[in-house]
Specification:
single chain, about 220 residues, alpha/beta, Rossmann fold, Alpha-Beta Plaits, six-stranded parallel sheet, five-stranded antiparallel sheet, 8 helices, about 25% strand
Length: about 220
């Protein structure tokens, strides 16, 4: 696969080395001359020293052969401009971009980015997961898409024990995707009965996922 990488900072460098080791054909645009020399010493990438918004650099690249692209600079405005060039002027088929601030995510998507990754947002999710893995884990969350997937364990004294999926009153914008019990994945029907220790997968709208999760977490008063 031919991959174009714009920005070889602390995120871009490991990606370049990894892709190079896997045998992909890498082209790099990086404005820092020192980093360009370091990449040249440790990979077989074709390197262009400059800014990703410089059209003259783009004209030197065989863009019609590029399969995918990473936009990884530390500046959101630059990443947006690079994306616009990649999509509107050169038709790069698949673009993955970094978002420094979560507020830029939707703008990048509208500009044509296929996958937007916000490290600060991902770090936030990982820290919450670290706290919540005692009883639940966020598998995926995207506020802009109003979608969330979580996995949570029913407490041994949970009030939902002995009750069915139908009893939860799951709304249309939410689903009980599956239940892990004794190492097996079960796809529950409305009459499926919960047991203590079951791990339940819930997906859907953020609001309704949390509402169902609260019902599952609820414990009997002692």
């Amino acid at each position: 696969m031919r991959v174009l990488v714009v920005g070889a900072g602390h995120i871009g460098m490991p990606i370049i080395y990894h892709l190079s080791e896997k045998g992909h054909l890498i082209t790099v645009i990086e404005k820092d001359e020192k980093r360009c020399k370091e990449i040249a010493e440790h990979s077989d990438a074709a390197i262009f020293n400059g800014n990703g918004i410089e059209i003259e650099i783009w004209k030197k690249i065989e863009t019609d052969k590029i399969d995918a692209m990473f936009i990884l600079t530390n500046d959101d405005e630059t990443n947006l401009q690079v994306c616009q060039i990649a999509k509107s002027q050169f038709g790069i088929p698949f673009v993955i971009a970094r978002a420094h601030q979560p507020e830029i995510i939707e703008t990048l998507k509208k500009a044509g980015v296929d996958v937007v990754i916000c490290p600060s947002q991902e770090t936030y999710r990982l820290f919450l997961n670290a706290l919540e893995t005692l009883n639940s884990e966020i598998l995926y969350e995207n506020a802009s898409e109003d979608f969330k997937i979580i996995k949570l364990r029913i407490p041994t004294n949970g009030s939902i024990i002995g009750k069915t999926v139908d009893h939860l009153g799951v709304p249309e914008d939410c689903r009980i995707v599956g239940v892990f019990r004794n190492g097996q994945l079960i796809y529950p029907t409305k009459t499926f009965m919960f047991k203590g220790g079951d791990k339940v997968l819930i997906s859907g709208s953020l609001k309704y996922v949390e509402e169902i999760a609260e019902k599952i977490r609820h414990v009997e008063a002692t």
